[in-house]
Structure formats: structure tokens, C-alpha cells
Amino acid sequence: MNRRNFVKTGAALLSFPVKAQPARPNVILILADDLGYGDLSCYGSPIQTPNLDRMAREGARFRQFYSASPVCSPSRASLMTGRYPTRAGVSHVLHTESQTGLPLSETTIAEMLKQANYNTMCIGKWHLGSQPKYMPMKRGFDQFFGIPYSNDMWPAPLMRNDEIVERPANQDTLNFRYTAEAMDFIEHSFNAPFFLYLAYATPHVPLGASPGFRGKSRLGLYGDAIQEMDWSIGVILDSLRENSIDDRTLVLFTSDNGPWFQGSAGALRGRKGETLEGGVRVPFLAHFPGRIPAGMVSEGIASTMDILPMLSGLCGAPLPSMPMDGVDIWPILTGNCDAVPREMLLYFDAWNLQCARLGRWKIHVSRYNTPPWLPEPKVGRLNLPLPNAELYDLERDPGESYDVAAENPAIVKYLRERLESLLPTFPDPVLAAWWETWDRSVEEGYPGQYPTLKSP
After folding, report:
1. With 377 labelled, which of 28, 49, 279, 294 sits at a CA distance of 20 to 30 A?
2. 133 and 241 housed in the same domain
3. Is residue 185 in a domain?
4. Backbone Cα Rg of the chain
5. pLDDT > 90? residue 58
6. Which of 299, 333, 367 lies at the terminal end of a domain, its last residue?
């Protein structure tokens, strides 16, 4: 089925009478999987993504937007809760045999919006716990259609609500089916505002694309998969417009982390699994005709953690009781300000705090023991302090290519002290990992700069 026929089919499915405009907006949150900062044409990619470019042209595009983790489960936990993954209780990637998930004490976006009478659906990758009590239907979603964990975790069962409908899922047709489900959900959600969480598997491996898209990008299966996802988003945007609901529907698009072995981080250094910019800086687009100025490009610093607080205010839903790490970025999206006040942004990998960002400055204090800066480790992969803290001016050097710590000792000192002052506010495993980092460095004979924070 080509795009035109799909749009016609979607329009027929959505041929409902226009209802009175609800006081609260509909929300569609689209999350790509392992999509790099440089993987969309509106961010400089040779892969053609005209529909996502259209979102940017008709809405907002952020140049400094971050996932809260360089890997998937922790990143998604932060997205759903507005909190650092280390606070939200998901610090590592969950696997098929994992007995844990996003703690039941945490409130998801869907649970928050249910309090404001939203219809809710999760389509696509969940990966926040595959045990029944952690699944989407128990976390505020009325419906679920997707895979409970990552699409590379065998046998990748496709589920509808609590039932397996296909095992293993046909990954070449997943994108198409996810989009069809999204359109069907929209059709049946006009008795109340709706929240649709659409988490595509693209472009996580194993890559898949429908026959009509294979070879289309001339940039391999990776490019084909992204172009099919882009086409799918175009179908949804067209349906919203054709049925006169685009002006009361906020559509958000981002990625859970940077690219893996394929894909582009643009001019950024690092990839998935690293707290260098390429592992955590991701595309972010927001589309809301009449509410978000067209063609806006923001240099403001923002994060996936900011989505929940923003939706709380915009949708009239009470914030969860847990302290938020995200902030409401709606004033940036409406063009009322260039930035909103926020605390220093921290970069975690698992329990390990490795970097922090404040304004234009990013400080690196620890990293895994990789060959470029350490001799061969005596034991396995360790998080160890850098020989000297590194400082990067991300306004002048977003690629983190030039360490300017030696020229700015006062800034390094201030950032280190501020970073360390935040550590005691985190759960005990964060502090334990911090001190283990320094203790292991001594064992390796490589102590680096010892922290000023006093050991408990």
C-alpha cells in the first residue's frame, strides 16, 4: 500500500463528525529507538525525512535536547516519570528475564493524565518491565500494542493488551502496523482528550522495513527504516489535519538515546552507551499549530525529563508527588522565553555520575577505563575518575573536541563543588558508585583528582 492509499484509508477510518473542542489538548508522544542527533534531514542527515522536517518547519526544533541516559530502559523511565533514572529506580537495561521494572511507586505520564480523564494508549516498545505488574496496562494505559522489551530480545513477542498475538514479531511490518493502530486509536478517542505514546522500534537492530521502502533511501536498510518511520508520521499528521484536530493536538518527537554502530551523531562526539554528547543529545521536534510558532529553532537546554512537567501544566493534570527533576519547557515552545531556570543537568551511566552541564559548560569527572586515557585495566570495565576533570564550552565546541579546563580553573572548581553538592540528594547506590569509582582508581594506581565531597 502506497502513502496516498494509506492516507485515504486513514481518512475513511477517521471520517467522524467534528466534536466540540476539548479544553485540554490531545498529546501524541513519538519516540524513536537509537536515532542519532544527525539522522534527520532537518538536522543535517542525507536521509530524507520530509515529514519530520515539516514538523520542524511548522513547529519547533531544539538543538540542545537530551535523553536522561545513553541507553534505553533508564532513558524511558525518565521520560515516563520526569525524574533521573537513578531516582526512578531503573538504572540499567532490563532483559527478558528481569523480575524488576519501573517501581510501582513511580507515576507515569499516562497515570498522571488519567487523572485528567485522558484516553491513553501505548504502541510499540515498552521496556520498563515485562512482568505483568509492570506492563503498560498496569501503568495508566488503557490499551497496549507492541513488544514488552527491546526488539532484539528473542523471541520479541507482539502483544495486544495482555495477550501475545505473534511470536516472534514480523519486524518488516511492525512500523506499518504500529501506524495503523495509532490511527485506529485516534478514531475512537473523541469522547475525551487522548494521550498516545508511540514508541517505534526504528532504527534499533534488527532493522526492518516494508518492501515498498527497501532500497528507497539508497543509504542501506538503516536509511530505509528511518524513511518509513518518517512516512508513517506523515500519515498521522495528515490525518490530524484532514479531520481538523491538528490545532488541538500536540505532537512531540524525540529519541531515547544516540545512535549505536550505525547512524549519525552529527558533529557530536560519542554514541549510544556514552555520556559524551553523541550518546545523549537527541533530536526534539514539537508541532502544535496556533500554539507553537512555526519555524522556531531553540538553543535552550531541555530534556526528556521535562515532558511530564510540561504536560502536567498544559493538560491540567496534577504533578506526581515525587520530586521532579524535569522542568516545564512550555514557555520556550510558545516563544515566550529562550530558556527556563533549571538545576545543573547531570549525566549518568547506570549508577555512575560522569558529567554535568550548566549553561554553556560541561564538565567530565569520570569515564569507563578505555585505552585512550588509561593503561590496560587490571580487571574488567570500570568507571574511574579522569586524570584531570575535563571542561568543554558547548557553545563554541559542541563536539567536545577541545578541553579548556586548564584555562578555566575557577569554573572547574565551581562546577565540581556544585555537582558534588547534588550527590547526597540521590539514592544510596549513586553515592556508593561514586565512592567505588574513587576507591577503584586507587587500586588501579590512578587516583586522579580526589573529590571534595566528604565520605560518609
Report:
1. 279
2. yes
3. yes
4. 22
5. yes
6. 333
The residues, ordered by sequence, that sit 6+ positions from 414 with a Cβ below 8 Å of its Cβ are none
Q: How many angstroms separate the first and last alpha carbons of the chain?
A: 63
Is the pTM higher than 0.70? The answer reads yes
Integer Cα distance of 326 and 372 in angstroms? 34
DSSP codes joined into one string, 419-434: HHHHGGGS-HHHHHHH
Kind of pairing, strands 249-255 and 26-32?
Answer: parallel
Task: Clarify whether residues 368 and 439 are in a common domain.
Answer: yes
Convert the pLDDT of each residue in 249-284 to its tens digit. Answer: 999 999 999 999 899 999 999 999 999 999 999 999
Report the C-alpha gap between 75 and 84 in whole angstroms.
8
Contact of 329 with 340, CB cutoff 8 Å: yes
Catalytic residue among 42, 95, 122, 127: 127
Bridge partners of residue 362, in order along the sequence:
357, 392
Please indicate whether residue 72 is annotated as part of the active site: yes
Q: Is 337 assigned a catalytic role? A: no
Judge if 324 and 433 occupy the same domain.
no
Domain count, the chain: 2
Q: Which domain holds residue 173?
A: 24-333
DSSP type of residue 281: B
Active-site residue identified among 72, 122, 315, 355:
72
pLDDT for 369: 74
Please indicate, yes or no, whether residues 39 and 106 belong to a single structural domain of this protein.
yes
C-alpha cell at 276: 559524551
Q: Are 315 and 370 part of one and the same domain? A: no
